[in-house]
Amino acid sequence: MIRLGMMARETATTTIDSVLAEARALQLDAVDLHLSGINRDLGYLRHVRTTCLRSGLAIGYTGGGSFVGPAEERAKRMAQGRADIDATASLGAQVIRLFARYKWPETVEAQEALWGPMIESFQEIADYAAEQGVQVALQNHNNGSFAMNAKQVLRILDEVGRDNFSFLLDTGQWEGAIGSPPRGGWDENVDLYRDYIEPTAPHATYVRAKIYKIDAGREEWLDYPRILQILRGVDFNGTIGLVFELGERNGCSEEECRRLAVAHLRGVIADAYK
Known about the structure:
about 270 residues; 8 strands; alpha/beta; TIM Barrel; 8 helices
């Protein structure tokens, strides 16, 4: 049965512990942890892991960085990637999410000059992750990325060619889709479901479900009944992690939005998998 989770991120106003408490109150199955800003002290990571165990929450994915960019910054990217994988292993998370975020060059020559080293970096970091027993997953992202459409995502997956390198499907962050900047606008020539989600869903080991407009009790920008039918069609039975990008467009509190989103997705999942 599909498991449902939500994202937790340490900020100036939010602690991981407070998000874990809310996830438990919402009776979720998992939490996804952003590694940026988190205390990397081993004792703290053990505290988070133990709190999740006591709360009945699996740690789904951890959020790592990007592996494409200037050659002179490669060593720094790889060192950070190895540190993120070490933290992921300490937390006992299912998978680490990685990006291919970097401004897409205008010329084919410039694109390919960065593409090959990116593939090599993904292969190297996947091999390191395999030694730690960690699964790696590429996430699509439109805001400056080499993985902003299905063609790019599928090419990366094919060329990396590692058993522990898979795909984390973000439902909203695609080129020209409604969740990409500017929020609420979209390219009329793009069919999010046909062009992006259907081709990549067979490769998804995890799903990030974006929530934008939920105050009426259902997500208005994305068609989750259709998305869940696509996922069911490819026999996806993993975890869906809710990600809230609410802005000021909702007429209720963020806490109420999260409650509504959980109820909405639970209903959609039940209908799709009955």
